[in-house]
Amino acid sequence: MPEGHTIHRLAADYRERFGGRPVRVSSPQGKFADSAALLDGAVLARTEAHGKHLFLGFPGGEWVHIHLGLFGKVTFGDAIATDGAAEAVDAAGKNGRNRAIPPPTDTVRLRLANPDAYVDLRGPTTCALITDAEKRAIHDRLGPDPLRADDDPDGAWRRISKSRTTIAALLMDQKIVAGVGNVYRAEVLFRHGIDPYRAGRELGAGEWTAIWEDLVLLMREGVRLNRIDTVRPEHTPEAMGRPPRVDDHGGEVYVYRRAHLPCHICGTEIRTADLAARNLFWCPTCQRR
User: Fold this and answer.
1) pLDDT exceeds 50 at position 1
2) What is the residue range of 125's domain?
3) Could you write out the DSSP letters of every residue in the chain?
4) Residue 102: inside a domain, yes or no?
5) Is 233 a catalytic residue?
């Protein structure tokens, strides 16, 4: 499932390509067809993300609420030159007279398009047209998001500081902290030397502040780079003379999906275990209780 930085990046991409302009809205798959017909030709007024939830705002207080879940995928594309009209596109790739949006497949739940570009949504857990009030209800049930500048980490701390639940499980609870997934959970705990099995109430206020501030920095970089990198400059492959990570998730990490490999810092074998139905990764030496 995509982590919060991916959803914020998608919000920015939707806004950059389609914001402030009328869009054609369709649902080739048909599951969003009635709502798409209501929005077709409207202006995409704003986009927003909170945790793993994406919101596309239209005039009149209407929002498309998207949650990708495990299988959702978003694909952006540009208009292409039609057959025999390649000369209509200049060297810079600007619009010529004969550019067209390629037709969607019948698996597309939601397509937004304008004369220059399109974006297709497939396989989301949620794609629904909601009101302002319904959107507010979603925000109210989510915890603070490190990527939302006005969100207050104290709300999360009040719950964490009273909880007997492990900090590893608490960080994955979207009602407590929104947007943190398995990678950021494992990595931020390693970076601060915190055993993932410590209870929330065993954490100090200063430790929580450091975790939150680190999440803000790491996730902002995730938005900027569109991948997760968590190793400090002195632990990069170049600095340590080690091979770069080879993984379909990309990015350089300390412990995530490195089970049974040596820790970059101390050489101890990285451990893994199941916690709250997700794989947990940690270094038992660097992350002592």
Assistant:
1) yes
2) 4-141
3) ---HHHHHHHHHHHHHHHBTSB-EEE-TTSTTHHHHHHHTT-BB-EEEEETTEEEEEETTTEEEEEE-TTT-EEEEEE-EEPTT-GGGS-TT----SSEEPPPPPTTEEEEEE-SSEEEEEES-SEEEEEEHHHHHHHHHHS---TTSTT--HHHHHHHHTT--SBHHHHHH-TTTSSS--HHHHHHHHHHTT--TTSBGGGS-HHHHHHHHHHHHHHHHHHHHHTS-----GGGSHHHHT-PPP--TT-S--SSTT-TTSBPTTT-PBPEEEEETTEEEEE-TTTS--
4) yes
5) no
Q: Catalytic one among 207, 227, 278, 284? A: 278
- 37 against 91, higher pLDDT: 37
Summarize pLDDT for 46-63 with one digit per residue, the tens: 999 999 999 999 999 999
Identify the domain boundary among 115, 141, 167.
Answer: 141
Q: Is the pTM of this model over 0.70?
A: yes
The number of distinct structural domains making up the chain is: 2
Please tell me which residue in 3, 48, 62, 252 is annotated as part of the active site: 3
- Indicate which residue of 52, 111, 148, 185 is catalytic: 52
